[in-house]
Amino acid sequence: MSVPALHDDRRIVLTLGCPDSVGIVARITGFIAENGGSIVEAGYHADAATGWFFTRQAIRASSVADGVDAFRAKFAGVAAEFGPETDWSVHDSGTPKRVVLLVSKEGHCLHDLLGRAAGGELPATIEAVIGNHTDLQRVVEAHGVRFHHVPFARDPAERGPAFDEVRELVDAHNPDAVVLARFMQVLPAELCEHWTGKAINIHHSFLPSFVGARPYHQAFARGVKLIGATCHYVTAELDAGPILEQDVIRVDHADEVRDFVRQGRDIEKLVLARGLRWHLEDRVLVHGGKTVVFS
Amino acid sequence: MSVPALHDDRRIVLTLGCPDSVGIVARITGFIAENGGSIVEAGYHADAATGWFFTRQAIRASSVADGVDAFRAKFAGVAAEFGPETDWSVHDSGTPKRVVLLVSKEGHCLHDLLGRAAGGELPATIEAVIGNHTDLQRVVEAHGVRFHHVPFARDPAERGPAFDEVRELVDAHNPDAVVLARFMQVLPAELCEHWTGKAINIHHSFLPSFVGARPYHQAFARGVKLIGATCHYVTAELDAGPILEQDVIRVDHADEVRDFVRQGRDIEKLVLARGLRWHLEDRVLVHGGKTVVFS
Amino acid sequence: MSVPALHDDRRIVLTLGCPDSVGIVARITGFIAENGGSIVEAGYHADAATGWFFTRQAIRASSVADGVDAFRAKFAGVAAEFGPETDWSVHDSGTPKRVVLLVSKEGHCLHDLLGRAAGGELPATIEAVIGNHTDLQRVVEAHGVRFHHVPFARDPAERGPAFDEVRELVDAHNPDAVVLARFMQVLPAELCEHWTGKAINIHHSFLPSFVGARPYHQAFARGVKLIGATCHYVTAELDAGPILEQDVIRVDHADEVRDFVRQGRDIEKLVLARGLRWHLEDRVLVHGGKTVVFS
Amino acid sequence: MSVPALHDDRRIVLTLGCPDSVGIVARITGFIAENGGSIVEAGYHADAATGWFFTRQAIRASSVADGVDAFRAKFAGVAAEFGPETDWSVHDSGTPKRVVLLVSKEGHCLHDLLGRAAGGELPATIEAVIGNHTDLQRVVEAHGVRFHHVPFARDPAERGPAFDEVRELVDAHNPDAVVLARFMQVLPAELCEHWTGKAINIHHSFLPSFVGARPYHQAFARGVKLIGATCHYVTAELDAGPILEQDVIRVDHADEVRDFVRQGRDIEKLVLARGLRWHLEDRVLVHGGKTVVFS
Questions:
Q1: Which of A69, A92, A115 is the C-terminal boundary of a domain?
Q2: Would you say C123 and C97 are in contact if contact means Cβ atoms under 8 Å apart?
Q3: I need a labelling partner for B12 at 20 to 30 A (CA). Which of A176, B54, B113, D19 fits?
């Protein structure tokens, strides 16, 4: 699936997190200027609670004469000055990110992401969709995207081989993001570990409220006046990973659980699409179980 | 395209608007009770500005022993008591509403509505999609929906025959709603008249701000902090029809017009989907250029 | 403190909850019509989960020739037809509701409610403010409202006498609402019981997230992207009472706990003001630990 | 009126706007680092439409050994390098900003701002309130703030002397912000000019919809589904100045104009408070009739 250019300019995107100290910004922006870099967008955050510093710089690619690879190689020397814990990356937006989606039967998040990709709105290519059911196969293929069917055993204890197959299929695409688009299966701890920082889930509640199964039923029972959705990185602890994005929608006494389900879909779609977009544009830095999002 | 039942119950939906007076509610609900009708949902509005009364009653269909046709026939006598201006309808939700979509090249509203239909969420069948370009044909057909291509002349003065063809194609489906899903063509006055109360448009601004062409460019020039979308009935006066629904999304100085376009799509999709849903569920009563929406 | 009339008309407000059956609406609206009642606003809810029916009718007071007392007396006979569990009330909006506020040191909710009362916006009189500190006394008195200072012992085990004094002071005003406007004290179970259905609290989180102490600190630790506030009736179980209203506000990684505190105040003020208004206008019916709000 | 420290740290806040070119950020942050400055918060914006660059830097005051005056004096040399159009400022948050409020009879914005000031939430002192009526005098004085009464002639043509008196009273306080808190008087062009960049108005519509008088009546007539408020700098062209902040609130068919008025107040208060806060914290840079807001 090709990605039409919505933005007409390529960017070199630099992200960095390290212990804070005086002069980091000057050092980094000095380096960028020395390399001719024209900064189009910049985000900074000095975190008082942890003492860390975070930045994201988007640089007009055409302004860096030596190209992204030379830029990255040279920057490694700068990053080293900030200590061994420093976490950094340099990405060329001209090289599209790659996404694999995991789905089950419910198609709303899938339809939404396929529609965004078709409109050139997703800063990535959807490489493949893997489903434990075939309900969504036809539309996936109409969008020119490969669909893999991996059936799952009824007994959760026997799903190991299916997860192994999913892992192999996913990894074959070397994706930048593995999206659980209402996949409805809890990933084994070793898969969470294996895909740390790239597996993204959409949970249909405003976490930490209503962790686990049937959150809309839990919300209905409590009588809340807003329902929500949370996009988070997948970690071994259920629904406890770093939160990328959340939003809510108003409900009232006249709404039954099925109305929560229907209305909640609109928030799930939006929250997942926003979180995924930020992840793909290198806007999200993770530290201490929380995210810095330069949106 | 079939519509799976999200709601397990059929409803008889009664709507009525008439000059207000004491006792109307008692008369109507007395009639419903006499016919065994179990009211599931009810909306009332006494409009102080116009002196009109409006109601919508959703009745469990199975509770009305004589069936919807007999109910409607008997109710005609009741409605007549409220004067000649009375505007009323009785609809059986077991008979799905019918929708025709008009599109151009931009697919976001189309993808959204097709996804909702596929998920059983739209209280209607999408009978056909008519496009003045073929860009969206493939996905429409993958959803099992008929696509008609009607090319439009470059010269607006020569588009009469194309509009005639669109009118004929649309009317052949006898639709309850004709949705301009980013159709990008201004309907001739006689078509607006012909489809009064069923042609629905999505305009990409918070009307009455930014009427007409390129509203996102107008919004950018003014420096607004929110952009919006408006779902309205089409009338001969451009972007001036009764408003079904509106919403907004936050933007800031870092957003360029292309960002407005991208972010605005999410609001356009939601606002159109909500407005269309309310129209199809007989939740919208029009009076004096404004809507009463029993949402 | 006098309450200028924002609304020019007096209303008789009838509320009723009872087991659902066919014909209740017809019976009630028939009764209203027989008494000449002109219905200005009406809300209905048939609750599928509990099988109960709820309604609120606002009737133009001047249209009921016999007056509210006769109306109420006659309606008692109608209500009796719906069974012994029926819960109903008839209130004349010409008789202002009475409110007592409990406060501590933080004044934002208090200032907000005093401002609303001064603007004629609160459908009630503020009879008194009781504080366990004197910080807010001066402004309360500038608004012409009585302030009572009741010091609380440092040791929670020794606060019984103070709570007794608060109870006596509150009850002397025979209030329709006892508002814990950031009172910061957990009411003893017997006071919760004593003020059932009239004690209203504002909790500074989106319940059921972050029950108990320091919810903004809890929210910061979890890294949520929205913070919220919840207005609920006070019950013996902490922060678990029926929810009247909730709302949220967006935060991001740059916000520290003190920013949560500052921004959260705006949501606390709005959520409390809306919930209290609905309570005072008899828009809230409680059943099964949840609320029906005819807003 | 004293301002308790909500934030425990003093900041030196540097703002700058100039034609964009490579190396500006490096130059500025290099200068800050040379002076020992620890950057706590930073915002950048390169504006593609105008070719301008904007930044705001908040520096821990204690990290700049030489103090703010020396820092400012030295920075003047740096700013000069960016060309004669460069617009910059250096402010010490330890020197509180000064605000004068203009009011009429409606008190909701005034009460809100006084409450915020009392809670230590406003990053400024309220130096005085000037009213063309005395309705709000008592509460202003209870907050320890000076109230000036300046009566206005009924005939708009004869209000010149009153405006002269207002000007003199305001200027005597040398304020950083002159807030028209529902002042209801159109400032003469020369006063708009005189207070350019510091006179802030709250307009009760989502501009550019409903410019001028009685915007809620205009909104009601059009049948919009959201009403809004706009905080903007005052310019000679009515309601056309650079927008600081906007927001909206949902209304429906049941809301009359008086309900718009009541509900709109909540949005007016919030939008004014946010816009004013950003202005006082030097977060707003104006260029080409629009604002850059580093919120």
A1: A92
A2: yes
A3: B113
Handedness of CA B114, B119, B120, B123 (dihedral sign): negative
Rg (CA), chain C: 20
**A234 and A262, same domain (yes or no):** yes
**Chain D residues touching residue C266 (CB < 8 angstroms):** 270, 273
What are the angstrom distances between the C-alpha of B30 and each of B17, B36, C27? 17, 10, 8
Judgement on whether residues C77 and C137 belong to the same structural domain of the protein: no
Query: Which residues sit opposite D128 in a β-bridge?
Result: D100, D146
D81 with D107, same domain? no
- Residue A221 to residue A217: CA distance in whole angstroms: 6
The whole-number mean pLDDT for each consecutive block of 10 residues of chain C, a chain of 295 residues, reads 48 97 94 94 93 96 94 98 97 96 96 94 96 94 95 93 97 98 94 97 95 93 97 94 97 96 97 98 97 96
* Count of C-beta atoms within a 10 Å radius of residue B94: 12
User: Would you say residue A1 lies in a domain?
Assistant: no
Chain C positions contacting chain B at CB under 8 Å are 22-23, 25-27, 29-30, 32-33, 36-42, 44, 46, 48, 63
Q: What are residue B290's DSSP bridge partners?
A: B287
Q: Among C102, C260, C109, which residue's Cα sits nearest to residue D115?
A: C109
For C275, residues 6+ apart whose C-beta sits below 8 A from its C-beta are: C200, C202, C231, C232, C244, C245, C284
For residue C56, how many other CB atoms are within 10 A of its CB?
23
pLDDT for B151-195, tens place per residue?
999 998 999 999 999 999 999 999 999 999 999 899 999 999 999
A219 phi/psi in degrees, rounded to 5: -65, -40
pLDDT tens for A102-125 read 999 999 999 999 999 999 999 999
Tell me, what's the pLDDT at A45? 95
Give the sheet arrangement for strand D124-131, strand by strand. D146-149, D124-131, D97-103, D177-180, D199-203, D226-233, D243-250
Interface chains of chain B (3 or more CB pairs under 8 Å): A, C, D
Decide if A154 is inside a domain: yes
Mention every residue, 6+ apart, whose C-beta is less than 8 A from residue D273.
C266, D112, D113, D116
Q: At what angle do helices C108-118 and C257-280 cross, to 10 degrees?
A: 40
Give dist(CA B56, CA C198) in Å, integer: 33
Task: Report the pLDDT value the prediction gives residue A14, as an integer from 0 to 100.
Answer: 98
Cβ contact A119:B265 at 8 Å: yes
Residue type, D154: R
User: How many Å apart are CA A287 and CA A18, to the nearest integer?
Assistant: 10
Listed residues A37, A59, A92: the one ending a domain: A92
Question: Which of C9, C124, C13 is CA-nearest to residue C72?
Answer: C13
Q: Point out the residue among B142, B143, B266 whose CB comes nearest to the CB of A270.
A: B266
Average pLDDT over residues D103-122: 95
Tell me the nearest-neighbour CA distance from B111 into chain A, angstroms: 6
For residue D71, give its domain range.
Answer: 11-92
Q: What are the backbone dihedrals phi and psi of residue D229, each rounded to the nearest 5 degrees, phi first?
A: -145, 150
Residue C1 CB: number of other CB atoms within 10 A?
15
Q: Which residues of B touch C37 (CB under 8 A)?
A: 22
pLDDT, tens digit (0-9, with 9 covering 90-100), for D123-171: 999 999 999 999 999 889 989 999 999 999 999 899 999 999 999 999 9
Q: Show residues of chain D in contact with C116, CB under 8 Å.
A: 108
Partners of B131 in the β-ladder: B103, B149
Token match 């330069």: residue? A294
Phi and psi dihedrals of B86, rounded to 5?
Answer: -55, 135
Interface contact flag, B22 C63, Cβ < 8 Å: yes
Do C179 and C264 lie in one domain? The reply is yes
**Nearest residue in chain B measured CA to CA from A111:** B115
Residue C8: its pLDDT value, please?
46
